[in-house]
Write a structure and sequence with these properties.
The chain has a domain at 3-97 and 175-199 and 206-259 and 274-329: P-loop containing nucleotide triphosphate hydrolases (Rossmann fold). Helices cover 30% and strands 23% of the residues. The chain has helices at residues 52-59, 82-91, 110-119, 126-139, 144-147, 157-170, 187-204, 215-221, 239-244, 249-256, and strands spanning 3-16, 22-35, 41-45, 67-72, 75-76, 92-95, 175-179, 207-212, 224-229, 232-238, 302-305, 308-310. The strands form two sheets. It has an eight-stranded mixed beta sheet with strand order 6-7-8-3-9-10-12-11, with helices on both faces. Strands 2-1-4-5 form a four-stranded antiparallel beta sheet, covered by helices on one side. The two termini are 17 Å apart. The protein binds adenosine-5'-triphosphate and magnesium ion.
Length: 334
């Protein structure tokens, strides 16, 4: 089975400060791949600051990695020629968390859609370009007459976000890396767009890396999930396993915070103690349990079962993962 995108031990350290350098290892080495023959939807979850956007940008080749390698169609990103880079940019699309920064305030929003069509030669003439744009906008619930011809600041955050989703759909890439793609849209539209994302996989064989802090939507759309905490993988695997039977105390904390529709449960009742402190296990070498940074290099990832891996003392009786690629423990297509 071949890999389309293959990240091997990629990490990201941000260095800031002019005189005194401040280092922040926002993404610890992680290996992950997207298969060529079995399109998948992978959710990347974790609290704010856990490194989700950093991960997304590194695997999309937008942010320079600090270590490791990134390959697309078996070619190292750092050694690609201009043709390969253009192909990579077409086949791997990103939808950003904050779409405003993608727009040029001096251009009407139409520009965001016409540019890639022209750049990748997707339409023959102006009328084909218009048809493509209109159908892409309608696909994400936007009315072309209320969207086209406007400047970015004349649209709402949700509309700008949907245009980015439309742009990604338009190019029919092989992989979409979507960073909180529905954070600014209302609940009904969120369901529609998430459904579209699932369809992308089913109809167009597009794999999706779906970044979110919302486990409910991760459960709805994804086949597999990676849970990040302080830039490292704490748990990963089949979404049913990880969300319904979380092993790592941090994943348990996240899942306990998800409201469940239970008519017998009163609002004031919570399912157990959900504080961070209550979940800390003494002596564990995972970042969540142990605050001793010096032990982090000893961090091990255990194979809890064939479809679930955990980096925590609670799983230390299990065998250590033989394969460093997290995706080796993923369920292939439902
Ligand atoms: N350009 C940057 N320079 C320095 N540090 C950064 C930079 N971007 C992010 N960071 C830091 O890296 C860590 C991970 O940030 P990241 O944006 O990847 O988190 P996130 O999981 O996407 O959070 P959120 O859910 O809030 O979007 C944070 O500690 C953040 O402060
Ligand atoms: Mg983010």
């Amino acid at each position: 089975m071949g890999s389309l995108l293959e990240a091997k031990q990629v990490s990201k350290e941000y260095i800031s400060g002019t005189f005194i350098k401040k280092r922040n290892l926002a993404l610890k080495p992680i290996s992950f791949s997207v298969s060529d023959d079995s399109p998948s939807i992978t959710a990347i979850a974790g609290e704010s600051g856990s490194g989700k956007t950093t991960f997304a940008r590194v695997i999309a080749g937008i942010l320079d990695k600090s270590s490791g390698s990134l390959r697309y169609r078996d070619k190292d990103i750092d050694q690609m020629n201009s043709e390969d880079i253009l192909n990579f940019k077409k086949e791997v699309q990103t939808i950003f968390q904050d779409p405003f920064e993608v727009y040029n305030p001096f251009y009407k929003v139409d520009h965001v859609l016409t540019t890639p069509i022209k750049k990748f030669g997707l339409a023959e003439n102006k009328s084909d370009i218009d048809k493509m744009i209109i159908s892409a906008l309608e696909e994400v619930g936007l009315r072309p007459d209320e969207t086209l011809g406007r400047y970015p600041h004349q649209l709402s955050g949700g509309q700008r976000q949907r245009i980015m989703v439309a742009r990604a759909f338009l190019l029919r890439p092989r992989i979409i890396i979507a960073d909180e793609p529905v954070s600014m849209v209302d609940a009904s539209l969120r369901a529609t767009i998430l459904e579209e994302i699932k369809q992308l996989r089913e109809i167009h064989n597009i794999s999706v890396v779906y970044i979110t802090h919302d486990l409910t939507t991760a459960y709805q759309v994804a086949d597999n999930i990676i849970v990040l905490y302080k830039g490292q993988v704490v748990e990963a695997g089949d979404v049913e396993n990880v969300i319904n039977k979380p092993v790592h105390p941090y994943t348990q904390l996240l899942t306990d915070c998800v409201p469940r529709p239970d008519p017998d449960q009163k609002w004031s009742k919570t399912s157990g103690d959900i504080t961070l402190e209550s979940r800390i296990i003494n002596g564990c070498i995972c970042a969540f349990c142990n605050q001793n940074e010096s032990l982090e290099s000893d961090r091990k990832i255990y194979e809890f079962n064939k479809k679930q891996i955990v980096s925590c003392k609670v799983a230390e009786k299990k065998k250590i993962c033989a394969n460093e690629d997290i995706s080796a423990y993923f369920t292939k297509k439902k």
